[in-house]
Design goal:
Distance between the termini: 61 Å
Radius of gyration: 23 Å
CATH class of the largest domain: Alpha Beta
Helix content: 40-55%
CATH architecture of the largest domain: 3-Layer(aba) Sandwich
Order of helices and strands: HHHHHEEEHEHEHEHEHEHHEEEHEHEEEE
Strand content: 15-25%
Structural class: alpha/beta
Shape: globular
CATH topology of the largest domain: Aldehyde Dehydrogenase, Chain A, domain 1
Number of strands: 16
């Protein structure tokens, strides 16, 4: 039997177990799911030495693969990050259970009473790179929404994800839930990804979380529906009515807090009227912080910038690099973002309510912000406890995908011997 055939058989077994677990989870109580997540959170902290030892192996593997500093930062775990993972699990556990929530109900003249209620999607497939925390976040959110999940982590996080997954299984077992509700694909073989993308019999939706190469492949090859964003080309537009001190604070944070996440600012747009009045000290702040600022011709008078190339605009650097350009007001900013953006997250810095209203109305990004860092493009910061990813499509889920976004709905219709005329 060939290697591909072995992978096919393995993924079929995983899919069958996930489908069976999903049937049980759809009936699980909110208390059971919360207990599973609380126990998993305890296990993460109790087994932190084991997780960190596994992460040392993963970091060595990542360095051998010549991962960028930003990607290594995504991969790295420490006690602070493990504490955050455990807290995220507890936050998800504490949320109201979305399953069974009545979204709407009404009576019809025919005598029918109709309810629209949240229901699990079924089985979620999550394919991700580097970040081992996704193992916990994705497993927890899918469980909270009553879904079984098949996790295919990146080869870099193989060992860390394995121990984190074991903690989630501890929680399932303690709560009397099927341990197959959260499964981790036990191989680095890329053929497993291909099997997931075509597993329409077992998987209801795929969520890819990673770089452009991974997400592009998923969107191109998947026969299963996909929640995803291809790139996080996030813009910060400094309007003529921006507050200078707010702007300096927000721009620096939007780019430098963590450069390797999808909410990191990749392009700074500056209104010519603002530049004529105040210059662009926020770009100097970035340069002093070690950011390479690739500026268009109008901004190259700022010491320390380097000339931008055409392909620097519309590019996700995920590094200490940012593009910068002068634009003519909010209309110029909108035109640039529509041309080069990815409909992920874009921000306007302004004290002008009308300019902000135009920016919010005319742009169709999944997340639009005013006077706030794009680094807030995160499910936890939206009060979701965590997110399984950011979706930029327009069907079903959009923006941070939390537990509620991992549900569908069904109609419950009641009559009293009611017949249609």
């Amino acid at each position: 039997m060939s290697k591909d055939e072995n992978i096919t058989e393995m993924m079929t077994r995983i899919g069958q177990k996930a489908r069976a677990a999903a049937r049980d989870l759809a009936c699980a109580s909110g208390a059971q799911k919360a207990q599973a997540l609380e126990v998993a959170a305890d296990a993460i902290w109790q087994r932190r030495a084991e997780i960190l030892a596994a992460n040392v192996r993963d970091m060595a593997f990542g360095r051998d693969k010549n991962l960028s500093p930003a990607m290594l930062d995504r991969l790295m775990l420490n006690e602070e990050r493990l504490k955050s993972i455990a807290e995220s699990l507890r936050a998800i556990a504490a949320q109201t259970d979305p399953v069974g929530e009545v979204l709407a109900e009404w009576d019809q003249p025919s005598g029918l009473h109709i309810c629209r209620v949240r229901t699990p999607l079924g089985v979620i497939g999550v394919i991700y790179e580097s970040r081992p925390n996704v193992t916990a976040d994705a497993g927890a959110l899918c469980l909270k929404a009553g879904n079984a999940v098949i996790l295919r982590g990146g080869s870099e996080s193989f060992h860390s994800s394995g121990v984190i997954h074991a903690c989630l299984v501890d929680g399932l077992r303690a709560a009397g839930l099927p341990v197959e509700a959260i499964q981790l694909v036990p191989t680095r073989d890329r053929a497993a990804v291909g099997e997931m993308l075509t597993a329409t019999k077992y998987i209801d939706v795929i969520v890819p979380r990673g770089g452009k190469g991974l997400v592009g492949r998923v969107q191109a090859e998947a026969r299963v529906p996909v929640f995803a964003h291809l790139e996080g080309i996030c813009h910060v537009y400094v309007d003529k009515a921006a507050d200078l001190e707010k702007t300096r604070r927000v721009v620096l944070n939007a780019k430098t807090r963590r450069t390797g996440i999808c909410g990191s600012a990749e392009c700074i747009l500056v209104d010519r009227a603002f530049f004529d009045a105040y210059g662009a000290p926020f770009l100097t702040d970035l340069i002093e912080a070690g950011v390479e600022v690739r500026a268009d011709e109008g901004l190259q008078i700022i010491e320390g910038t380097i000339p931008a190339k055409p392909d620097d605009f519309g590019r996700e650097f995920l590094d200490m690099i940012v593009a910068a350009r002068l634009v003519n007001g909010v209309d110029g900013a909108i035109e640039h973002i529509e041309t080069f953006g990815s409909q992920h997250t874009d921000a306007i810095l302004t004290e002008d309510d009308q300019a902000a209203a135009i920016f919010f109305q005319r742009l169709d990004s999944a997340i639009l912000m005013r006077n706030a860092s794009t680094q807030f493009a995160d499910g936890a910061e939206f009060g979701m406890g965590a997110e399984i990813g950011i979706a930029t499509g327009k069907m079903h889920a959009r923006g941070p995908v939390g537990a509620a976004q991992l549900t569908s709905f069904k109609y419950l219709v009641e009559g009293d011997g009611t017949i249609r005329a």
